[in-house]
Here is the input.
Amino acid sequence: MVLVAEPKQVVAPGELLAEGDHLLGDNAYKIGTQIFSACIGILEVDGNRVFVVPLKGGYFPRAGDLVGGRIVDIGLSGWSVDIRAPYEAMLPASETPGPRGPRRRDLSSSFDVGDMVLAEVLDFDRTRDPLLTAKGPGLGKISTGRVVEISAAKIPRLIGRKGSMISMLKNETRCQITVGQNGVVLVWGKSPEDERVAVEAIYMVEREAHTRGLTDRIREMISKSRMVEQVAGTQTA
Amino acid sequence: MNKLPEPKQPEKLIDEKGLRIDGRRLDQLRPLKLEVGLLDKADGSAYIEQGKNKILVAVYGPREAHPKHIAMPERAVIRCRYHMAPFSVDERKSPAPSRREMELSKVIRESLEPVVLTDLYPRTTIDVFIEVLQSDGGSRCAGITAASLALADAGIPMKELVAACAVGKIQGKMALDLSDAEDKYGDADLPVALVPNMGLVTLLQMDGNLTTAEFEQGLSMAMEACKTIHSMQRETLKKKYATIKDAVEEREEPEIVA
Here is the structure.
């Protein structure tokens, strides 16, 4: 049981990660007793399990994921939604809040083409396209706040270990932030300045996801831009 | 309109000192430059300069398959287009896909397919566009080298990067990485694509005649060269992230010291 590469390091596809009786995790593959990386990412080791956190890549749906999507088409009994995945998702009218039963006449009064919705992946099994639901607290049409789209591969970093990054962001920016697993992030703040700082911080996480000490650097960035704002505020006053 | 003079056939491909027309030894690669992630609109991209070759590769996907009937129920379909720009060669090349380009698109696709984990993305396509901006012999190999980098840059799961390089026979001697003139006036050309870790050859073509001994010598030369190219590919891919890492973590340093 030998770890060949350093944990937390950037690894390329085909790079030898470990030899021996390690457990195989995500984005890695095994030939004999050797484990290799299957993508460009950061090597992580959790106990005996070796896996790679990708630095790039699109969103692949999983049941239970919270996602933000854009309505692209209205059908007879539901909507087609672009959730930034290789598959177009379906949101049936029966999975939206409101009275049950057929509402064929006026689906566009709920969601129209181009609207953003927050939804949950109800079901997806690779043979059929993902099925969404907009029933649930906070789900449905997005009509306020700001939508930030980042790479889905950077979402785990934006949330952080046990949610450390996202809770820090919420506290420091005084914004409400909802993170969709597909890279769509929603930001609601009390003032446009708060929202601007939050959006900037989210982009910074995306850019520097693979670096060390990121949480501290972001906290510093936020407090700096706050100071700048205060100075500007006093000058205009 | 004046036509450009045809490039003259060099008198000798190898001089008395054993050097080639561009001054290389027989076992020497042309200068190689690699870059990744230069296109914003593509999911992954790469650029290669090998000698006078200049090739840009863009990768899209995995994405929804269009037209729908090409989609496979159990795996992703890889589509590949090798295309030479009209200005990439001495005389204007028609931009329409030629017989040669279609063949190269096919062999390049087949050289990449074994490494990409296509079964992870059923019913989708992965599109690879290889655009030759300037051509100088061995462009299919340079195309493969760059295409596998672009696939990795797109974050597409793959077993390994594919490296490719050609060898050939000029004036009866085996020489590595033929240039345009050496390819045209030489005796044989043998492009090879290799997956180094697995020892898998994914492209092997031959144009001209070689003896068994020459073939074996050539193949081992090409495989050695592929390994060199492969380590450069890896370095290039990692460098993109190392640069950002160094830039932001350096700012930290003084504080830790103080």
Notes: The first helix of chain A runs from residue 155 to 159.
